[in-house]
Design goal:
Elements (H helix, E strand, L loop, with lengths): L2 H8 L1 E4 L7 E4 L1 H4 L2 H16 L5 E5 L2 H13 L3 E4 L9 E7 L4 E7 L12 E9 L3 H12 L3 E10 L5 H4 L5 E6 L1
Parallel strand pairs: 3-4, 3-7, 7-8, 8-9
Antiparallel strand pairs: 1-2, 5-6
Bound molecules: adenosine monophosphate.
């Protein structure tokens, strides 16, 4: 069975969470299987290694679960993109529209400091790509801080929500597409 098949069998579908009509893709069963988790992280990391990634940015909060081990596999720094008010140091922020409200992500301003001239080659990591609004906002924030986004990497992609359209022109890598 392929990795995608095994991931598909492991992800838990939770109807009407967190709101009626949403079929939530719960990745926690992947976290409970260390061999499968390790294989998923390795697959995501090796596809990013080909792109010469120098930094991994994980999107709060499930992006941290995959982003940190990917950064460790690649031997590159990890930086979190967090909900407002969580990061203690000086931050840059990016607001983005959701269906009924606006949301904000923040990153520390110094995450890409200490390089040697060339812009950092950044991978943005999350668990699920849905409409792409969150990933697109993270990409804009990374770029405002001087990074070049070379890929958006997710475990699962909900293709019917056309997240790639919100990320047009960007490289998107997913292990499993619905
Ligand atoms: P979006 O901005 O629409 O691409 O939503 C992406 C964020 O919401 C990601 O951080 C996902 O973790 C989460 N998300 C959106 N839709 C789902 C879903 N159906 N199942 C699980 N997570 C989701």
């Amino acid at each position: 069975m392929t990795l995608a098949d095994r991931l598909a069998r492991t992800v838990r579908d939770v109807p009407d969470f967190p709101a009626p009509g949403i079929l939530f893709k719960d990745i926690t069963p992947i976290l409970a299987q260390p061999a499968l988790l390790s294989e998923a992280v390795t697959a995501m990391a090796s596809s990013l290694a080909e792109l010469g990634v120098t930094h991994v940015v994980g999107v709060e909060s499930r992006g941290f679960l995959f982003g940190v081990p990917i950064a460790m596999r690649l031997g590159v720094p990890f930086a979190p993109a967090r909900k407002p008010g969580k990061l203690p140091w000086t931050t840059e922020r990016e607001a983005y529209a959701l269906e009924y409200r606006e949301d904000v992500l923040e990153m520390h301003v110094d995450v890409f400091h200490g390089g040697h001239g060339e812009p950092p080659r950044v991978a943005v990591v999350d668990d699920v790509l849905a409409t792409g609004g969150t990933a697109a906002a993270t990409c804009r924030l990374v770029e405002r801080l001087g990074g070049e986004v070379v890929a958006v990497s997710v475990v699962l992609e909900l293709g019917f929500l056309h997240g790639r359209d919100a990320l047009s022109g960007r490289t998107v890598r997913s292990l499993l597409r619905y």
